[in-house]
Amino acid sequence: MESANLSRRSLLQAIAAIIASAATPLGWAEVAQAMDAHTAPLTGADEKLAFFSSSDASDVEAVAAQIVPTDDSPGAREAGAVYFIDRALSSFFSQLGGDYRSQLSAFQAAFRKQHPEAASFASLSSRQQVEFLETVDQTPFFNTTRLLTLLGMFSLPSYGGNRGGVGWKLIGFEDAHVFQAPFGYYDRDYPGFVIDPVKSK
Amino acid sequence: MSMQTYRDSDSVDVVIIGSGAAGGVIAREAAQAGLTVVLMEQGPRFSVRSFRHDELKDWYLGGITNDVVKNPQTFRDAPDKKAELQTFKPALWYGRGVGGSSLHYTANFWRFHEIDFNERSVLGPIPGTGFADWPITYADLEPYYTKVEWEIGVSGLAGASPFDPPRTKPYPMPPLPVKSSGVLMERGARKLGWHPFPAPLAINSENYRGRGSCVHCGFCHGLPCEVRAKASTLTTVIPEAEATGRCEVRSESYVFRIETNAQGRATGVTYFDRDRHERFQRARAVVVCANGAETPRLLLMSASTQFPHGLANSSGLVGKYLMFNYSSRAVGVFEHELNEYKSVQVSRILHDFYDSDPKRGHYGGGGLDARMGPQPTTWAIRTASEGPSWGSEFKARLKEFPRSMQVAGHGTSLAVESNNITLDPDLKDAWGLPAIRTTYKDHPDDLANARFLRDRGADILEAAGALRVTKADVTEQTSSVHLLGTCRMGNDPATSVIDKYHRSHDVRNLFICDGSSFVTSGRGQPTMTIQALAFRAGEHIARFAKRGEI
To answer: Which of A92, A155, B52, B484 has its CA 20 to 30 A from that of A81?
Structure first.
């Protein structure tokens, strides 16, 4: 719970700063509560599969890892996107499950035809995977996998992906519930709104 | 506080269907005027304490909205096609809970301008459309716009735009702090000689009427506000209606039929309660505020031998003239961080292109706003649709999140009769009721206007010094959150569904007020006008009730 405690502390600091600087937000108790519930599920990762076989999961994970690859920063693999996808298709997106299963089969069949020598898509080298994906990246299977991978990378970690908030860190999103102006570089030294700058010169 | 409850057999003065932007306001106006009210809502009553920054739940799983499993819909772009089931996101997306779509809206609260009400007279007819004037003017609605600003709570700066229509009072709260996107819009637009100004928002910039000020969390768009700074009817007028002791809010109560008697009067509504038991609530008057899709659906489901084509539908126009508005966008990437994910969506807008101009070669106009755009998940999905969509280059684009902004264009939609809501002939929802079927194709002028506005947005981004500007493709829309025009207001019963007081032409004690009442689409931000209409309708309904004219 270390991360939750840290978040809680920074939240309280932010609230203290707001109280000191301006009007007290009446809803701060709600913010604190929402934030506690928000950070709690960041710990603990479930590796059990409910929708995929382990070999199917390996293939889907390999595709996801080409969609958001791992380089000097984490990608879909580190985010645990495949566990999110597995959970989604067996629960809250179960209406997509039937179609996805047949799309995955079609993908694997096309792969075997192209690479009869290989045990599976996941077993190929990264370069070979990219070459094959370039031939199928307009298919329903690829589109759905991309959609689910991205949902998994950036949704709340409690859904099984975005582990440790790696997706948010990747794109520079700060997971906090209270911010104060200035928010960015360009609004730092804003002089205030002037109704008609031409006339007022 | 113990809340007033009524029995089904009690004949309350008014039963209101839908507790969103309009229904909540009318409930308060009626109850404060002394009428007894039952406010029906399909969805649950959420606790503000249950609201989270859960983008997946609220954007993709119908957390506070209709969802594709329980409330399935079909969509097609032409009347001769079979409409297809939407399996991932519904075509029409609306709040389903006490507060309705005011829970998840972005809270851009622009008033309409004078031209929105009389544009047909100014510009002349447009062949193939139902382009028409409203039976009311901006001046008729001005006092109620002011009422929305002061009683719902709107932040803004009066007199900041040279294009603003006349107003009788300033805003009750100053604008929210400018964001980097707002500063850049000012920089770019002023170079081009245009007139950006602080965006009016139904979000508190300071404590107001017992609700706290915005804490800039950045999750207004599509999600409910956990600090009540964004004004939803759940946290503003509905508690005020209940405080009168004359209004019962009945959540998880799904009205599917308005009953009428031999005299052609509405007698009350039949609904499923939360245990799916069929019940009937008697009432002296029925007010439908269920939104531009659910309102015509309910009227069509209320067909009877006396009203074979649906209730209040002697004109045949119930469900027709659906208008979405067109929301276009240009995206800019800058050298330094903007961190647009912080705070409200929009801090600066401009109305230089609000009016239609024949020189542009098409009908239409609109407003532009500088905004964040999507939150992380939707950012990623959208980025994939606008350039490299997987691999290292895609990953590099994802990382531009804090350095990006968009200028969104909000444009007109023409009223086209074949754009409509009908009952799907085959598909049923989880209660066994006919699903909403949408038929929609943007008018060519709407698309041309969207491109025009998008290109002006790109001009602003370039003038502001963006490193890269991307113009999102303008293609025909297949989904919307703006549900307008489907029970239009007018003086002539042959060409409209309700009169200028929101009374249906056909049924004397049936009133309709929500986005369906619109005659023209306006320029993209409809809720302010929906609520101004609702304050006005509520006042008139209370007056009619007191005179025995319902």
So the answer is: B52
Domain regions of chain B by residue span: 12-546
Contact check, Cβ <8 Å, A180/B216: yes
pLDDT value at residue B285: 98
Give me the helices (H) in B288-363, please. Answer: 294-301
Average pLDDT, chain B: 97
pLDDT exceeds cutoff 70 at B75: yes
Whole-angstrom distance, CA of residue B365 vs CA of residue B358:
10
Instruction: Give pLDDT, residue B89.
Output: 86
Q: Give the model's pLDDT for residue A195.
A: 85
Tell if the pTM clears 0.90, that is, is over it: yes
- The predicted structure's pLDDT at residue A41: 42
Please state the ipTM of this predicted complex: 0.94
Separation of alpha carbons B134 and B119, rounded Å: 9
Cβ-Cβ contacts under 8 Å for B264 (sequence gap 6 or more): B306, B307, B506, B507, B508
**B326, B411 in Cβ contact below 8 A?**
yes
Architecture of domain B12-546: 3-Layer(bba) Sandwich (3.50)
Helix (H) or strand (E) segment spanning residue B183 = helix B180-191
B385 touches chain A (CB under 8 A): no
Q: Give me the residues paired with residue B92 across strands.
A: B480
Torsion-angle region of B517 (φ positive above 0: left; ψ -120 to 50: alpha; else: beta): alpha
- Any idea what DSSP says for residue A94? G
Q: Which residue has the tokens 């999905």?
A: B381
Q: Taking residues B349-360, what's their average pLDDT?
A: 97
Q: What is the reported pLDDT for A5?
A: 39
CB of B184 within 8 Å of any CB in chain A?
yes
Task: Confirm or reject contact between B394 and chain A (CB < 8 A).
Answer: yes
Separation CA B469–CA B457 (nearest Å): 10
C-alpha separations of A169 from A173, B344, B485 in Å:
6, 21, 44
Estimate the crossing angle of helix A126-136 against helix A97-114, to 10 degrees. Answer: 120
Q: Which residues of B touch A130 (CB under 8 A)?
A: 391
